[in-house]
């Protein structure tokens, strides 16, 4: 009886210590992830951090059309918002990653992003007293820095950038006229304008994306003459996920092939992942290449192209388009 009691007591003490330590470890991992996210020393030229392209004041997106990496190299993609990224099922505009831990790996080693040579280059930059303490606190059972730990910490931090249950912020009740226009825009979004066909959501909640791939509203007109050469070139060069990432940064024409570089499906030439519309007013410029400067222009372009794509033009008046923009601007999270 005494042995049973002692064993039970030991088990309880072990559980209690673990339960007490777990929140501290989780906090330490998030803090480590935040430090990694903001550390410019982890780029090849020591001048660029993740936070320089995913800026908190812009809903963790970039206010430049295309992001600038190490040594001033400009890539071919606009950096999307990271708010709520932990609830996504695919990552990057072409969806080449399906795990957040894998997605955070890539930017370290892409020439047009942080530009490091390899994992050893990264781990050597983490070999200092401050980071050793951080890794020990975040991973007490295996405190040495490793790529797995870097990925886990960054993913933990990014998952903390939540969208508050993805519930849109309520509009003010002090301006009845504004509220009426927002309500009209909401009806258009879920009805006549057909936005919800790609930006899935219920009337009260949702991430406002289907995480699927659709032809870009920018179209392929400028690439049409080159497609017979670009398609086989993309198929031959995009041999793995890392190659897709490099091609998307280095070759602007191949980057326009979009999801096709990943799955080689003809229907996905120039197709890109549907971005979330939460906090959309804070994430200009728009589209995968940042070529659309304002939300109003993005709405006009999408309405035109979606009507063209379906063969049934969407007839929205100028007033209705304005009301739709009013509603989109309310999709903010605290």
From TrEMBL:
It comes from the Bacteria. GO terms for molecular function: cytochrome-c peroxidase activity; electron transfer activity; heme binding; metal ion binding. PROSITE patterns: CYTC. Residues 28-162, 180-332 form the Cytochrome c domain. This is Cytochrome c peroxidase. Residues 1-19 form the signal peptide. It comes from Fulvimonas soli. InterPro entries: Cyt_c-like_dom, Cyt_c-like_dom_sf, Cytochrome_c_Peroxidase/MauG, Di-haem_cyt_c_peroxidsae, MauG/Cytc_peroxidase. The keyword Ribonucleoprotein does not apply. Binds 2 heme groups per subunit. Its cofactor is heme.
């Amino acid at each position: 009886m005494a042995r049973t009691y002692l064993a039970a007591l030991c088990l309880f003490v072990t559980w209690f210590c673990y339960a007490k330590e777990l929140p501290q470890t989780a906090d330490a991992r998030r803090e480590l992830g935040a430090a990694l996210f903001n550390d410019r020393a982890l780029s090849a030229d020591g001048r660029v951090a993740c936070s320089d392209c995913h800026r908190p004041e812009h809903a963790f997106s970039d206010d430049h059309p295309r992001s600038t990496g190490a040594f001033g190299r400009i890539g071919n993609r606009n950096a999307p918002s990271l708010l709520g990224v932990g609830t996504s099922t695919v990552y990057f505009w072409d969806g080449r990653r399906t795990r957040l831990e894998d997605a955070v790996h890539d930017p370290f080693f892409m020439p047009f992003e942080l530009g490091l040579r390899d994992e050893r280059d990264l781990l050597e930059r983490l070999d200092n007293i401050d980071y050793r303490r951080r890794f020990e606190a975040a991973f007490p059972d295996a405190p040495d820095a490793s790529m797995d730990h870097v990925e886990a910490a960054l993913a933990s931090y990014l998952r903390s950038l939540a969208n508050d249950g993805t519930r849109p912020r309520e509009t003010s009740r002090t301006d009845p006229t504004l509220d009426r226009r927002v309500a009209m825009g909401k009806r258009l979004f879920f009805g006549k304008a057909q936005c919800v066909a790609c930006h899935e959501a219920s009337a009260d909640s949702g991430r406002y994306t289907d995480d699927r791939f659709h032809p870009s509203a920018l179209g392929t007109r400028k690439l049409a003459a080159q497609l017979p050469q670009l398609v086989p070139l993309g198929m031959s060069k995009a041999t793995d996920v890392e190659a897709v990432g490099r091609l998307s940064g280095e070759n602007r024409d191949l980057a326009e092939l979009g999801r096709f570089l990943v799955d080689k499906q003809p229907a996905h030439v120039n197709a890109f992942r549907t971005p979330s519309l939460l906090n959309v007013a804070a994430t200009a410029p728009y589209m995968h290449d940042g070529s659309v400067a304002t939300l109003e222009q993005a709405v006009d372009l999408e309405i035109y192209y979606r009507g063209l794509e379906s063969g049934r033009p969407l007839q929205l008046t100028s007033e209705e388009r304005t009301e739709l923009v009013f509603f989109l601007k309310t999709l903010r999270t605290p």
